[in-house]
Amino acid sequence: TPFDIFGLDGIRKTERALIGEYRAAVESLLPTLASDYDRAVKLAELPDLVRGYDHVKLRNVAAYRAQMAALLKR
């Protein structure tokens, strides 16, 4: 909301962007879910990587995005 002063922070913007990225990744796997179940499970587990505060979280986001890109390339 406009009253959320912490929402303007770069980390918060990244967190909000991750939601859309994750949703798009999951939706891209839906057509092949039956044949790609293991990959879908690995993708579903990825958000557990995004933990920590500030620089720790940003480092984990980088690892999350790298693993997601690797999963989606297959």
Largest sheet: none
In round numbers, the mean pLDDT is 86
Show unreliable segments: none
What percent of residues are in strands? under 5%
Helix content: 55-70%
The Rg value, from CA coordinates, equals 14 Å
Distance between the termini: 38 Å
The 3D shape can be described as: elongated
* SS-based class: mainly alpha
Q: How many DSSP E strands?
A: 0
Helix tally equals 3
List the helices and strands and how they pair.
Elements: H1 10-29, H2 37-45, H3 54-73
Helix pairs in contact: 1-3
Features:
single chain; mainly alpha; 3 helices; 66% helix
Walkthrough of the structure:
The chain is mostly helical. It contains three helices and no strands. The chain has helices at 10-29, 37-45, 54-73. The longest helix has 20 residues, at 10-29. The termini are far apart.
Short account of what is shown:
This protein has 74 residues and is mainly α. It is built from 3 helices and no strands.
